Amino acid sequence: MYILAPSILAADFGKLGEAVKKTEDAGAAYIHLDVMDGAFVPSISFGMPVLSSLRGYTSQVFDVHMMVEEPGRYIEDIKKAGADLITVHQEACVHLDRVIGQIKAAGCRAGVALNPATPVSTLECVLDQVDLILIMTVNPGFGGQKFIPYTLKKVRTLRRMLEERGLQTDIEVDGGVTTENVRALMEAGANVFVAGSAVFKNDISGNVKAFMDIFKEQES
Q: What Gene Ontology terms describe where this protein resides (cellular component) (predicted)?
């Protein structure tokens, strides 16, 4: 099953609730929420108050991407704000196994993200503990960047690793995802797609529909 996760970083924050609702009505099952601390990544985005206020606008899965140092400090608060799926960076966790356990203990699905230059082999010991692995296809911290081509090989390698263990874990990709390159990502083994500008620029409903049409075409 292919899933679109529009990233609100690219949305008009003056009309955020309305924009998110449009993505849900058009068929996007997830909404992607990037929490940035200005330390792990250069940018600062938003935190729990925005998540909490947005929760009332949609029943979409809240796919929360924690781009913060030592994210274990915030797991309970992020859960209370409405998160369904919490993804932390391998590079940001001194004790990754412990943080994965914290996410599951909070009642959320657990994801782990890898920066473009981090090899997928670093997750070998926790593959069977996570629900989703996020391959960053740009360097994290800013929207609107161009897709890094070599990350496609990482997706293929990861899908092969998962299949060898008999795991059906979701592979999410985030960064520069468009209707032009999404087919290549699907063929490589990704099934959850974060898209910011490609969704929220101009016609939100039409942009979501374009992705959904590609998904249906691939599934048929």
A: cytoplasm
Confidence label for 220 from pLDDT (cuts 50, 70 and 90): confident
Q: Of the residues 63, 131, 170, 174, which is catalytic?
A: 174
Please tell me the predicted confidence (pLDDT) of residue 103.
98
CA distance 115 to 145: 14
The answer to the question of whether 143 is labelled as a binding residue is yes
Is residue 77 annotated as a catalytic residue, yes or no? no
Mean pLDDT score, 111-132: 97
- Per residue in 181-205, pLDDT (tens digit) is 999 999 999 999 999 999 999 999 9
Q: Which of 34, 37, 63, 131 is catalytic?
A: 34
Provide the β-strand partners of residue 64.
33, 86
Q: Is 65 annotated as a binding residue?
A: yes
Active site residue 174: yes
Give bridge partners of residue 88 from the DSSP assignment.
66, 112
Average pLDDT over residues 54-67: 96
47 known ligand binder? no
What one-letter code names the amino acid at 56?
G
3 phi and psi, to 5 degrees?
A: -130, 135
How many angstroms separate the Cα of 180 from the Cα of each of 67, 173, 201?
27, 14, 15
